[in-house]
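User: Is it possible to get a 3D structure for a protein together with its bound compound? The compound here is adenosine-5'-triphosphate. I've pasted both below.
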Amino acid sequence: MPESPPCDVKPLIALFGGTFDPIHYGHLNTVQSLAAMVGLDNVILMPNNVPPHRAQPEASAGQRLHMVELALAGMPSGMFSLDDRELRRQTPSWTFDTFTDLRSEWGPCQPLAFIIGLDSLLTLPTWHRGTELLALCHLLVCARPGYATHMAEPEWQSWLETHVTHDIGQLHRQPAGCIYLASTPLLPISASQIRDRRHQGLACDEMLPPAVLRYIDAQGLYR
Ligand code: ATP
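Assistant: Yes, that's possible. Here is the predicted structure of the complex:
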């Protein structure tokens, strides 16, 4: 039987999805540290479309996208790029569907990764085809203050333990299938905290890039 040709080694492509309502330093600085740890030259930010049954963002899709663009303009050149496919789709963002598309675009050999915070990993088995995502990509998980690496259900915990790797090389050699729990610096910043502080008229200067804050003021967001 003929053997299939071996895959060429290709640089790992990593995407970071989020509502980004608004984007903040908890996103940007944490992912920058992760990129240095894992050896990523670039991270693709992918703002999502929130399904109608979930709490809707305060900012519109266009405003969230623009805030991501403003944040990226202030980051080291080439470090981040943007993929707005989920916003253009006009239907709910199922991460599984997005990675199905990405896998068919890049082919079976391309190492792909989805970056998430630890809070998101803890709920991932409840997402649409959440655990099946590992057939399509790796999961790179950033630490988040207040969350411990312990899944609520024993079968989720054993799913996690089966797939965890400590070998960064495996993330680059294999196209998908590993969970990497990164000890990124703990940054106690969240978008909901920023929105709450704005609602109360409190300053958020240290929490997000100045250009994003100026845009929030100009648009009268989170009043
Ligand atoms: P909200 O407070 O409205 O829930 P958020 O700050 O968690 O928003 P999202 O856009 O929902 O921001 O998050 C996108 C991704 O970034 C998620 O996977 C989340 O876990 C991760 N993330 C957000 N803030 C941090 C942080 N401070 N440290 C590590 N990961 C984070």
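The chain has nine helices and six strands. The radius of gyration is 18 Å.
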